[in-house]
Amino acid sequence: MCRAARHGLILATNARRPLAFIFVPYAIMFTYSFFTRTFPTMEPDFQFGNYAALLIDPQYYQVLLRTLKISFLVSVSALVLAYPLAYFLAFKIASARLRTALYVAVIVPLWVSYLLRAYTWKTILGSEGVLNSFLVWSGILSEPTDLFLYNQFAMVVTLTYIFVPFMVMPIYTALEKIPRSLIEASKDLGVGRFRTFLAITLPLSVPGILAGATFTFCLSMGDFVAPFLVGGANGAMIAIVVQSQFGTALNWPLGSALSIVMLVLTLAIISLSDRFERTGRLDLA
Amino acid sequence: MTLAIDTPRAPAWPRWLRIDHPRASAKALGIAAAAVIGFLYLPIVVLVIFSFNDNTVTTLPLRGFTWRWYQAALANQDLLTALWNSIYVATLATLVCILFGVPAALALDRIDFPGKALFRRAVLLPLALPGLITGISMLNLFRVVGFDLSLTTVILGHGTALISVVVTQVFARLQRFNRRLEEASDDLGATPLQTFRHVTLPNIRSAIVGSALISFTLSFDEIPVTFFLTGRDNILPMYIYSTLRSGITPEINAVGAVIVVSSLIVIFFSVYLLSGQGEGR
């Protein structure tokens, strides 16, 4: 016991250091968001002008709304693609080894160079790209179209592509946990497959859906690589605006205020889904 | 049997909603699943194919096989410097992750200390938060402290952003670890250090190595944090990012294909290590 205590003390003092390292930066950012900008630097101050600017200037709140819309579309499309895959993995593959292998195959792209995978979509969707040249070659289009790239469609495709594995993981975990006896019981009672799915499988997989959607929504909200590569002029997202405040626009206080808004939104969504998930769990108990 | 009679019968569904052919529905599901997996690998395949295509634009039809883009990449001095800097950054950032991440995971697993819940959240924050916010807040910190942006700041930034990978994986392994083994070692007179070295460490080693490999590969294409923290020295993700601004070159396809294929191999290996005797995840 004494050994454990000694051990603990060492670990606890060690653990506090990364804690400070993670929290202090956010605190500094929060402070900056009240500063006044004096080009090219800023002055310490306490005023809400930066936050007011975000509410009044349509340039900012419109981008914010567009970001929310795109993140929503991405979450929905990722869900549509991920659910059948997760369902197939969890229920339709008998061999445990094959199931693990396929699951790994789905997860692996998540860790493989995000930048390069996003960039490849640019070469696929571009006006001289793979998709266009294929469509022209096969005679579906008479000439290449530029409808695929540099718009919100391209962003939804790219971001959906990137976040599908994030969606599959929690849904698969939730489906795996469903006791098979529940589904068999429903079938024994004469309920059809589709109704069994609606009444048992789907509700029990809601925590997984929520977790996946939260991840996907938050991460696409903060993404600035996809809008940069495939978004074009009307595809700008909030992260691009934040980035330019710290770069070319050189307005750190405004950029900090925008980041705080993003931070609060993200944390709110995370804790909201946390709460839903918990009530969902209570209902089942 | 009586049970079935007592249960209200399910109302009949419209014919088009009834999926009564198990084979047909399973087949449709299988095709959908295969299509999604294909979708996940399509860009990777496209990238590799076009890195060997003898054409300056990435367009169909393919023109023929060439090593030209790989030779051009190898002759590009800026690119090689960036690659070297990236290896340096990824190695040290991974070290930072291990040095702080493993003790943090141990602390989360075994010790109750004030603010534990908060600590848990804080460690996981960079995983869920947009990387952009981590990057900007670190930039602010370095500015306040008076650090000049350099490879060192990038290393610290990557360390912070990627530590959650190590903590979550090692923590998950520790949760499955049987503590009795440590008690037994203790009872047999081993010192705490000996117990850690010969009992605890071998059990979490594959989780540490696996998560370290993942951190290493992630550091290779970390953009959001890198973007704000790089100084004069370019590293690979920033080099690729700024090259993309000026248009697509097949040279990037060649470098990209090398990175993607080698990280595929590393990741498959580390996922195998993390799964710990095929237990999955």
Descriptive overview:
The complex is a heterodimer of chains A (about 280) and B (about 280). Chain A is built from 13 helices and 2 strands; from the N terminus they run αββαααααααααααα. By secondary structure, chain A is mainly α. Chain A has one domain: MetI-like (MetI-like fold), CATH 1.10.3720.10. Chain A has a two-stranded antiparallel sheet. The C terminus of chain A is likely disordered. With about 280 residues, chain B is mostly helical. Chain B has 2 domains: about 45 residues; about 200 residues, MetI-like (MetI-like fold), CATH 1.10.3720.10. In chain B, about 75% of the residues lie in helices and about 0% in strands. Chain B is built from 12 helices and no strands. Chains A and B meet through helix 1, helix 3, helix 4, helix 5 and helix 6 of A and helix 2, helix 4, helix 5, helix 6 and helix 9 of B.
List its salient traits.
heterodimer, A: 285 residues, mainly alpha, MetI-like fold, 13 helices, 2 strands, 2% strand, disordered C terminus, B: 281 residues, 2 domains, 12 helices, 0% strand, globular
What's the end-to-end separation of chain B, in Å?
42 Å
Parts with pLDDT < 50 across at least 5 consecutive residues of chain B: 1-8, 277-281
Estimate the global geometry of chain B from the Cα principal axes. Answer: globular
The CATH class of chain A: Mainly Alpha
Number of helices of chain A: 13
How would you spell out the order of helices and strands of chain A? HEEHHHHHHHHHHHH
- Count up the domains of chain B: 2
Could you say what the CATH architecture of the largest domain in chain B is? Orthogonal Bundle
**Distance between the terminal alpha carbons of chain A, to the nearest Å?**
36 Å
- Summarize the main sheet of chain A: 2 strands, antiparallel
Name the chain pair whose interface involves the most residues: A-B, 93 and 95 residues
What's the pLDDT, averaged over the residues of chain A?
A: 80
How is the largest sheet of chain A built, in terms of strand order? 1-2
Strand content of chain B: under 5%
Largest sheet of chain B: none
CATH architecture term of chain A:
Orthogonal Bundle
Number of helices of chain B: 12
